Amino acid sequence: MAAERILEVQGLGKRFGGLVALDGVSFHVDKGSIFSVIGPNGAGKTTLFSCLVGSQRPTTGSILFKGRELAGLRNDQVVELGLVRTHQIVRPFRDMTVADNVAVGSLFGSRHRRGADARVRVAAVLERAGLAARAGALARTLSIGDLKRLEIARALATEPDVLCLDEVMGGLNPSEIEGAMQLIRDIRASGVTVLMIEHHVHAVLGVSDRVLVLNFGKTIAEGPPQAALRDPAVVAAYLGDEAGGAAA
Amino acid sequence: MKGARAWMAVLAATLLLAPLLAERGTLNDLWNVAFAVVLASAWNLLGGFAGQISLGYSAFVGIGAYTTVLLADAGWNPWLTLPVAAALAVLFSVVVGLPTFRLRGPYFSIATIGVGEAVRVIASGMEFTGGSSGLRMPSADFHFLSNYYGMAVLALLTVGVMAYVRGQAFGLALSAIRQDIDAAEALGIPSTRYKLLAHALSAALVGTAGGLFAMNFQYISPGSVFDFRLSLSIVLMPIVGGIGTLVGPVLGAVLFSYLQIKLLASPTLRDSYLFIYGGLLMLVMLFEPHGMVGLWERLVQLGRRAGRPVAGAPRGG
Amino acid sequence: MERLASVLLSSVLSAGLYATMAYGLAVIYGVMRIINLAHAGLMMLAAYVTLALNTRFGLDPFLSLLVVAPLFFCFGVLLDLTLIRRLPQGGNAPSMQSLLLLFGLWLVLQNLAYVVWGGDTQAILTPYTMSSVPLLGERYGVPLLLVFGVSVLSLLGLNFMLRRSFLGRAIRAVTQNRDAALLSGVNAARISAVAFGLGTAFAAIAGTMLSTLYAFTPDFGRSFLLKAFCIIVLGGLESFTGVAIGALVLALIENLMAAYTSIPTSFQDAISFSLLVLVLVVAPTGLPALFRSFSRRAVAR
Description:
The structure holds three protein chains of three kinds. Chain B is mainly α. Chain B contains 15 helices and two strands. Chain B has one domain: ABC transporter involved in vitamin B12 uptake, BtuC. Chain B is 78% helix and 1% strand. Chain C has a two-stranded antiparallel ribbon.
């Protein structure tokens, strides 16, 4: 039985003035899978996420999510439909408690906000993200590892069908990375499709079902991780990146 | 929070019981305090809770005041004009908010100066506002005491609404928008809708206060109700008192009303009110961005630290 | 046709003053990411200083620029050292705190002028205030022409300074790419002080010139502040030419409105203010950026 496609992106393009950040990117994500987007700095990965969730408006292309067109919708509308993102540089509400941070996602992003008691759902999410002990602390007092968890917890609280993680492992130490990978596997096991950006290729190898490789806004490879990484274009892009220093 | 509740009880008791004890002069001063509390607290909903600093709030006072005078002139009972005053202020808040809420931070503030000035210039040039010479309420029997109670109840209602909003999802959304609007949107908050709502709610309260203002003073002109200086004090009161807090705008309103009474009484002080306003604003920005409330909290913390035994004292929370 | 020519000429003449006025705001914003709300107060104060120099020493307002501009440059540097430096620095977005601090300064300056010179309307009269010369079938006041000349001279002088001197180049570098310039070792504190001094000096030059054209009170300058802000938003902040273009666009709109529509002059300012709001909303990154990316629909959200 063929897997259901939860997200289908066709010819997505984004220009900033003369700069082409995304150039006709197409891919699809199967429901319940873990899909990774990799590529050197400036490849357009974060712009791709911004266009998916509607915080930036794509210049061309279409984004079908559960059969619905997302292009042109506002970020909050996309979240309500069940597609949510985290930010590479964490953006907590620093003057709110950890629980209130999560409550924002639960109260505004979730379709079930009028159903079960919000406080119960917040507690459950905090438990799942390993933040229960810090529920009452102000977000400004958290360590970077906890802030990354909070960033994920808030997004989870919106009860998404697809969770877009933007470099959640950046800046973490090896044991924290192991914890984050476990959290991502748990999230998938709970039925949420995961779309993740990683700068470091090897971090995603173990967990991803499929990989999309971007460079200068273009798709250079797409497929199962091992195959995609052996693609000559990918090898060239990464070697070129290392040899020529950070591109853009 | 408990402290805030006690403060509010004092405010309520003072405003509601004063007519039994005080004479007309004091009541006039208290009317001014109540008026200032409405303006400062209502502004704080948008400026403090949601972090959108508007420098054009006199427009809502003016719209409310003119609505009341013009409708009263057409034979309406002044009290019945108040809902219309509020509704027109709300309408204007949406008309202004739709374009300007796309702007962020200081850009929004600058745009609101532009809107406020445009409204004042247009109002001064229009026929129906009486131009720069202003308009008078139709002479009817006017009861100061009922107007006083009207303003006092409106002030308490405003503070009550703010306290209520703060505990609701709406208040949480505004706080999220103030702290990081992108993150707020990324978690599903329709930021423009909530900013418009906050703007509208505060405009309704300020517009109603404008109507009561017109009833009380019987005479209005663009120079009195659309004035930039009015916008200015509306901003200064909550900022000096403590932006984003419940008690702050009330403290600021009391302080500014007191200053105003002192200023009117002394010619030398009257000539230096801008020194006082500007100086206070600069002091707050340089030394205590949370105003009087922030200062108070600092003092409390200092006191606590001083009161503790030095050896083995944990850091004060 | 002749009417159009005179409208164009008037626009160019007022654009010179507008550009000078706007440049003071732009240089401070460009380097420090601060919106100087005290700009209006500084223009007003310069007008009064010019008046004092004129009545006390009989100094011609245009000659007094030689005193006023350096004086206000020092005043600006002093303001930066004593006030602005105390605020938390950094960030690429302008902070509310600096906006409100300078707002407070504006009020204090207004009161200062009120205490020293009183609240009456003042004007500076020179032998040539009332004289005019014919150009393209219309008569133009001599002060207006002088103002244009001085504006062009001071802007050219500034441009020269920004291109040739080390400090000038550092200012341009920080304006164009703040992070890169600061990372490459530009002395941020020194550049900020100079930029605030320059901005203040240009506010003062504009104020002195305004004082030869208009009567003023301590409340003077608010509408000009809004116009200056409108200009830098129109022109974009990156370049000198941008400011000039913004000034010309605003002047053209105003003059065309006055010449070809029946909108009463008392509403003229309302138009500028509404234009400001419109420009902010439609093209928050300025007209140049709007032209460059004609296809781009997303307004910076």
